[in-house]
Amino acid sequence: MIDITSLTKQFDKTPALDGLELHVKKGSIYGLIGVNGSGKTTALKIVTGILRPDIGEARMDGEPVYDNLSLKARMGFIPDELFFFGSYSLTECASFYKRLFPGWNAERFAEMKERFALPERRRVTRFSKGMQKQAAFMLTMSAMPDFLILDEPIDGLDPLVRKLVWKYIVDDVAARSMTVLVSSHNLREMEGICDSIGILHRGKMLIERDLDELKSDLHKVQVAFPEGSGSGADNAAAAVERYNGLELLHRETRGTVELLIIRAPEDIVRSVIGAQNPLIFDLLPLSLEEIFMYELGGEHSELGAIIF
To answer: In what order do the strands lie in the sheet with 280-284?
Structure first.
């Protein structure tokens, strides 16, 4: 488990994190998202013990991370900006990792070399960006970490490699209860991977919820009522009365059909609207991108930039 409590970090008196709270359950995948400059990378560097917080603390399994070598030996971190020794080949990098990480698994590394098919003896610094990302992933996963911290892990990877990367991660979470904290702008892929989501804005946690919980209370509704019953674009006052008891986040009309975004339990949505005998009444699935757009105040809000 990973816990950040009341964490503050400043750079040249400019706050990067401000009272951040973040909690990742053991054996789960947690997605951290936010606009550029929201503090995601700073948070990950504190979680991994690269940076010391000004106030607050980051803990893993109840132990403070900073200056904790035994805990770092159980941790894998793949940053967005990778670093490799200039003269090292993939094989030499593996030898280096083997000395650092007591859980190094040579059999897994050999198997991953075949799956990813990277040249073993070429300098890793001469790899393309995508190949370097694959190399970092192979080395990190072969160390068999208990905690995996990822910053834009699939950026620059082709679809087949992305699928393989996620498969290794999900398999290790299931088999070894590995705990994963991943920062990414790719919400479509996060939707199929993450158990929980946290949204950062200006160094603060705005929303931290299980993904299933996010989806259970926000609904897209397509509805139409008999002619003359007060539906349509010119009947906003009638809509307020009709949807009384529901938190209406968004409403637009397309002819006689209304498209609504409603925050409320599904049974209440069905009860309130169904009682008015609509001609059309459909609950449509919301994508994770749409959920964030409306949770954050609508498509034109500042944080709506996350999904565009």
So the answer is: 247-254, 257-263, 218-224, 280-284
pTM: 0.84
pLDDT truncated to tens, each residue of the chain (308 aa)? Answer: 999 999 999 998 889 999 999 999 999 999 998 878 889 999 999 999 999 999 999 999 999 999 999 999 999 999 988 999 989 999 999 999 999 999 999 999 999 999 999 998 899 999 999 999 999 999 999 999 999 999 998 888 999 999 999 999 999 999 999 999 999 888 888 888 999 999 888 899 988 989 888 778 889 999 998 875 555 545 566 677 888 888 888 888 888 899 999 988 899 999 999 998 899 999 988 887 887 777 665 544 444 444 33
Residue in the block written with tokens 């700073």? 42
DSSP collapsed to 3 states, 168-220:
HHHHHHHHHCCEEEEECCCHHHHHCCCCEEEEEECCEEEEEEEHHHHHHCEEE
